[in-house]
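Appendix C. Worked example: 3-sulfolactaldehyde dehydrogenase
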Amino acid sequence: MKERREVEKKRFSLEPSVKRIYKIDVCDPQDGSLIARVPGMNGEEVDAAVERAQKGVQIARSLPSHRRMAILRKAADIVEERAESFAVTIAREGSKTIREARKEVFRCVETLRISAEEARRIRGETIPFDQAAGSEQRVGYYVRFPVGLIAAITPFNDPLNLVAHKVGPAIAAGNAIIVKPASVTPLSALKLAEVMREAGLPDLVLTVVTGHGREIGQRLVQHPAVRMVSFTGGWEAGEEIHRLMGLKKVSMELGSNSPAIVLSDADLDEAVECTVSGAFWAAGQNCLGVQRIFVEEKVFEKFAQMFVQRTLQYRVGDKCSEETDMGPLITEKEARRVERWVQEAVDAGARLLCGGRRNGAYYHPTVLTNVPAYCKVAREEVFGPVVSLFPVSGLEEAIQRANEVDYGLQAGIFTRDVHQAFEAVQRLEAGGVMVNDSSDYRVDAMPFGGIKGSGLGREGVPFAVQEMTETKVVCFRLG
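Step 2, the predicted output written as structure tokens:
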């Protein structure tokens, strides 16, 4: 493992052709060790990158569909061949365990392959213009064409696959794209860009810019050459980007405070296993993570006991160990924030069932009950390994309380009653409802996004391709 880490460090010790004044240290959050240094770009450098990328717009637009498909397929094959190397990079620069990282690499491969397939499905339709009186001599159709230059800003929690979810559809649709990965986890994005070039993607079609969001993010989204912004991150940052970007297309996934409902007829073993995994995957740093669980009173005590018992079995430790279930948060600063939020709830009367302990960047899986609705852990996105359990009288109260927050990404419900399941599907305010599964379920081809404060538009490869194209109507007047 030490030798492999040294290889990764050398691979990403980027030395630009000109001396840079400022570089960003990329460190392992587990022990603070230096992995690599990447350029900390400034606004002028971003402007220059955008100007170069404008040339990539015409290059991308001229690539026929079969070339885009071939490039994306080859890139997927290369990532699959180097899966372990990618997994080590993900695990080292971020919070995921090596087993979680391997699953992310597998999803990245699937995302790229789905993108290749979607490149052949960008279709238009004929339009019956003679539906309007006086238009009998007109025939035509509509087609979809690339947006142009897309700016993508990605978070730290899925540093490879969320980049692929921007890059794959953008290339499939014939666009050029500039990616600004999270400053704490830029290496996976840089590594994927290398693979795309190796797969035959022409220079300037994909650009990765590294730097702090406050230094280059505003410059990037405001640049007039950028025609669309695709952002995944926090609600406050998303709102600021939307204010700054001006008249551009936009797609935003802004996180959530996802609920799960457990009714008394549910398979409790299944519900516990799904919600524990959903709550603590990637140390809870997951936009789909289960944060609030509403349990019917009849089974609340039993469910809580089972949930805590399973949580206490979670193995916290070295990310690169095959035995570890959960690693650290992305920084000690984030772990301290989660610690403060939990303490706020406890001070307000919440009961701590397990966890509540911090060790550096590690925060142990934490389960709370009796949490007042005004506490941050109940109304905001914790983005950490904290879950709150609430007893409810039945489905009506569960739906009402689940909908109280200003988020609506995904939700889950556990029940054997199909009528109650459909009631929840219809009334839960969310972009997706998972029946007999936690909110933390997704495949990369499905439409993905939320309502209210959870975002705008939809990701998922086929739907991202639609977002990343425009419609052009063609009409012929005959005779």
